[in-house]
Amino acid sequence: MSALQIKKGSTSHSAYNLRPNFSDVQEQHTLAVLVENEPGVLARVIGLFSGRGYNIESLTVAEVDHTGKLSRITIVTTGTPQVIEQIKAQLGRIVSVRDVHDLTVEGRSIERELAMLKVQGTGEKRVEALRIGEIFRANVVDSTLGSFVFEITGAPEKIDAFADLMRPLGLVEIARTGVAALSRGELAAQG
């Protein structure tokens, strides 16, 4: 048997099979992108995702340095590890991008989101919705005889859980800001 033939029961392949093993596992990553605050930057970042068929789960953007004219874009996306690496590399090639951090792999981070939920209901359903709102530390920011609006902040999972409990109680509308995230500790991403 030659050295290039595969041995029976062996897990190794031919020396000519140089293709690395790629993972098909989808992972969710939170990326913090520091960009120059100028017209068209957000469109170029979004264009990178849409042009290559990458999905954006959440997107937030705001100016973080008025004098330096810098904005921070926080993107939550899903893909295989290889796709995530491609996204980071391609983001880094955009001229107006100053820095790209993958908060998911760089260590511990804090993620928060704000949501407003409109709930319609009377009687027991209204009382139950208000009780659950209190447990979740949601604030009532608007109230009428037939509905009210909750404001809640927290991790995306907390908002999902609150919305799931409100659906049978009369949830009619929800607005979410998307994830804002920062690294914990001294090695935090700039911006």
The total of helices stands at: 4
Per the CATH scheme, the topology name of the largest domain is Alpha-Beta Plaits
Low-confidence stretches: 1-15
Structural class: alpha+beta
In the CATH hierarchy, what is the class of the largest domain? Alpha Beta
> Any idea what the CATH superfamily of the largest domain is called?
ACT domain
Total separate domains: 2
User: Level of helix content?
Assistant: 25-40%
How far the N terminus sits from the C terminus, by CA atoms, comes to: 60 Å
Mean pLDDT level: 87
Computed Rg? 23 Å
Largest sheet: 5 strands, antiparallel
Order of helices and strands: EHEEHEEHEEHEE
CATH architecture of the largest domain: 2-Layer Sandwich
The total beta strand count reads 9
Shape category: elongated
Strand content: 35-45%
Subunit structure: Dimer of large and small chains.
GO molecular function, one term: acetolactate synthase activity
Pathway: Amino-acid biosynthesis; L-valine biosynthesis; L-valine from pyruvate: step 1/4; Amino-acid biosynthesis; L-isoleucine biosynthesis; L-isoleucine from 2-oxobutanoate: step 1/4
Function: Catalyzes the conversion of 2 pyruvate molecules into acetolactate in the first common step of the biosynthetic pathway of the branched-amino acids such as leucine, isoleucine, and valine.
